[in-house]
Amino acid sequence: MKLPNLKEARNRTSQNVEYVYLKPQNKIKVSNKKYFLKTYGCQMNVHDSEEISYRLENLGYEACSNLEDADLVILNTCAIRENAHDKVFGFLGRCKHLKKIKKDLIVCLCGCMAQEESVALELKEKYPYVDIVFGTHNIHELEEMLESYEGKQDIEVYSYEGKVYENIAYKRDSSIKAWVNIMYGCDKFCTYCIVPYTRGKQRSRKAADILKEVNDLVAAGYQEVTLLGQNVNAYGKDLEEISFARLLEKVAQTNIARIRFVTSHPWDFSDEMIDVIAKYDNIMPYIHLPLQSGSDNVLKRMNRRYTKKEYLELFNKIKKKIKNVAITTDIIVGFPNESDEDFADTLDIVRKCEFDGAFTFIYSPREGTPAALMADDISLRVKEERLQELNNLVNLYSLKNNQKYLNQEVKVLVEGISEKDETKYFGYTENMKLVNITSSQNIIGEIVNVKITEAKSFSLDGEVL
Ligand code: SAH
Ligand code: SF4
Ligand code: F3S
Predict the structure, then answer these.
(1) How confident is the model at residue 27 (pLDDT cuts 50, 70, 90)?
(2) Distance from the CA of 215 to the center of ligand 2, in angstroms?
């Protein structure tokens, strides 16, 4: 058994990152077994789940979408806010119930929650029916853990800076667009955020390994890659002679139809990056640029390392240099002792930026982070009112931005049949607007020209041309 440790997880040394090139293993296969995998959290987790699926299917497991049919349940969890926790513990209740009927059911929990000291302890003490717990650093040990499982809870979670594993295979959810990790971990240590503790130190994959992956995806017919990292613009800072701008340029030269990336931090967003994005047609004009707050005082206490003025300058520069760019953001309300004036600054910058969209959150204290120790006299009621006010404003601008496209022609990469309306297809514009499309022909997997006929706050409707 190995339990996580927040103090060790916070540690950053100057040691070089270790690159491990995994070799295929011969494992005993299972037959007639089904797995149910549920994923919470961000794109990294979604992509990690594609690795987990590959590993399980390679062992002979078959995916199922009904919990009741499963022989193996895996919850890939997120620790970013308390409500993510609540959902997982709620789901574990269902697993406990099922285990009473299905004695051989194996329940696994992995992902960022597993990396939290308090969660691992709680699982150990109160949830003995959660059989296998592993963290973000040892997904590649899944097969071994399953093989050696003997009916007694096994927790194996490492709290170290982490390595870079290569030769990872994925069972990708889509055959049209793919996630590509370019880096792992985070060293920014924003004071509210748990990620640097759950994902380890910032470590970049080597450009050659990333490019090989992208080239393989191109050869397999993929149209779009999204480069993934908690802070893509810090890519390469731990390597020699490569920056994110240089990497982007090399990926653009693979000639894949569309390139996206998330997330870019306003800090280290270089002019070179803006120029490269503007220069290549296959780098999509869409930037997710988390603001968090419009108040200098709050930004400082968040350790975000930019001011409201600097954010605005960057925002305006991006808007000016990248044609037709859409910019979305993340905003936290109710950071400890956020005053009315602080909140007014956030509303003010939202009015100035008129974001294409924003993910908004009420601050949630995370154990082990500095902000969790800050005094906070703001009531939950006030925080909820602020969130409501902010959302009203944000939605207004989403709609206003979408209305610009009425009767316009846009290029959409079509991903599938619309979930809400089976007679329509759906896809995203170059600048990441969701479009529901009417077409008499099957257009899945194609980049098509669409005329927009209706604009709503969160999507557009259109007809294929
Ligand atoms: N690496 C990304 C963010 C990853 S987390 C970045 O720096 O931009 C996604 C979003 O969750 C953050 O941008 C932030 O708005 C929100 N978030 C993170 N920690 C939070 C917390 N403790 N409470 C509420 N929201 C939080
Ligand atoms: Fe969290 Fe900040 Fe790192 Fe983003 S940059 S993952 S918000 S610590
Ligand atoms: Fe959640 Fe971990 Fe992502 S905390 S947001 S799953 S990095």
Answers:
(1) confident
(2) 29
CB 435 within 8 A of CB 465: no
Nearest CA to ligand 1 atom 5: 80
State the total domains in the chain. 3
Considering 102, 124, 156, which residue would you say is the last residue of a domain? 156
195 and 313 assigned to the same domain = yes
Distance CA 360, CA 394 (A): 9
Does the beta carbon of 364 lie inside 6 Å of ligand 1? yes
Q: What percent of the chain has pLDDT over 70?
A: 100
Torsion of CA 421, 393, 269, 282, to 10 degrees: 30
Q: Report the relative pairing of strands 203-204 and 183-184 from DSSP bridges.
A: antiparallel
CA distance 259 to 226: 6
Q: Which atom of ligand 1 is nearest to the CA of 362?
A: 24
Assign residue 458 the CATH number of its domain: 2.40.50.140
* C-beta of residue 349 within 8 angstroms of C-beta of residue 310: no
% the chain with pLDDT above 90: 96
Alpha-carbon torsion 133, 135, 139, 144, what sign?
negative
b/e sequence 292-312, b meaning 16+ C-beta within 10 Å: bbbbbbbbebbebebebeebb
Are the C-beta atoms of residues 176 and 209 closer than 8 Å to each other?
no
Instruction: Give me the pLDDT at residue 25, please.
Output: 81
pLDDT category at 405 given cuts 50, 70, 90 is very high
- Ligand 3 pocket check for 195: Cβ under 6 Å: yes
User: What mean pLDDT do residues 237-246 have?
Assistant: 92
- 82 C-alpha vs ligand 1 centroid, how far in Å? 12
pLDDT band at residue 257 under the 50/70/90 scheme = very high
Q: Is the pLDDT of residue 28 over 90?
A: no
Atom of ligand 2 minimally distant from the CA of 263: 4
d(CA 374, CA 143): 42
Q: What count of other Cβ atoms lies within 10 Å of the Cβ of residue 326?
A: 21
Within this chain, do residues 237 and 315 fall inside the same structural domain, yes or no?
Answer: yes
pTM higher than 0.90, yes or no? yes
Q: Tell me which residue of 216, 173, 180, 176 sits closest to 412, measured CA to CA.
A: 176
Domain that holds residue 134: 6-156
Rg of the chain over all Cα atoms, to the nearest angstrom: 23
Residues 187 and 129 in one domain: no
Query: Of 80, 190, 268, 302, which is best to mutate to test ligand 2, by the most ligand atoms within 8 angstroms of its C-beta?
Result: 190
pLDDT of residue 49: 98
